Amino acid sequence: MNTHAAAEKQWTDKELNDLTVENEFRLRGLEVTRLDTFVDAAFAFVLTLLVISFDDIPSSIPEMLAAVKRIPGFAASFAILMMFWLQHRNWSRRYGLENRKTILYSLLLIFVMLVYVYPLRMVFEGMFSNLSGRYLPTSYEIESYYDLRLIFLFYSVGFLFMSLIVSQLHRLAMRSSASLGLNSTELRKTRIEMQVWMLSASFGLLSIVLALTLPDALVVAAGYMYFALIPAMRIPAYLDQRRNASVS
């Protein structure tokens, strides 16, 4: 059975009942399309850029030790990129939507990511270098607070747009709920994901404001504020549980 909803496919009850269920969600997009393959390849390419940018393979023990010290920055950059890749993967598997709008947003996600990869590494290398008292190296020299503001602006604009794109993909799934045959649980989970990524986008916007307005001595807060996003992303699900508990 073709499980991918090309264009405006109308799912029947029989087709929906035959779908694989994962975390209370019927997976309409298990068939891998050319768009899925292209998105996966683009993320793999960006990770390759991230690795290649670490220069040559170490040829001595001191060079190897210096390269090892840069692993934390690479690991954090890898984690952020995988967070967005997993979100697109889960969205594609859950809804299987492939039309002009979803293709456009998927391509926009790739475009922003290709630009975002450069400030991504700069931010995390700088953060770990600062936290370790310069023990962990960074390949970028920040000569002024103006440079630091620019890095945070560049990073946060990318984070903002990537989060907005993921949120918009879920919004498009909400708008196609009738043709997708989303049940109440699936609708609720879709709404939560949309809210989570709107909240994520708001952190990017807040970081931009802080980078532009904070005094020099405090401008690093425009980067460290992202740590608060980890617990904040649980808020929409928590509020949804409270709302459902009060209704029942």
List keywords for this structure.
mainly alpha; 71% helix; globular; 248 residues
Quick overview:
With 248 residues, the chain is mainly alpha-helical. The chain has helices at residues 13-17, 34-52, 61-68, 71-95, 100-131, 145-175, 177-180, 184-213, 221-224, 229-232, 235-247, and strands at 5-6, 21-22, 25-26, 97-98.
Question: Can you give a write-up of this model?
Answer:
Helices cover about 70% and strands about 5% of the residues. By secondary structure, the chain is mainly α. It has one domain (about 30-245). It has a two-stranded parallel sheet. Strands 2-3 form a two-stranded antiparallel sheet. A hairpin with a 2-residue loop joins strand 2 (about 20) and strand 3 (about 25). The model has no long low-confidence stretch (mean pLDDT about 90).
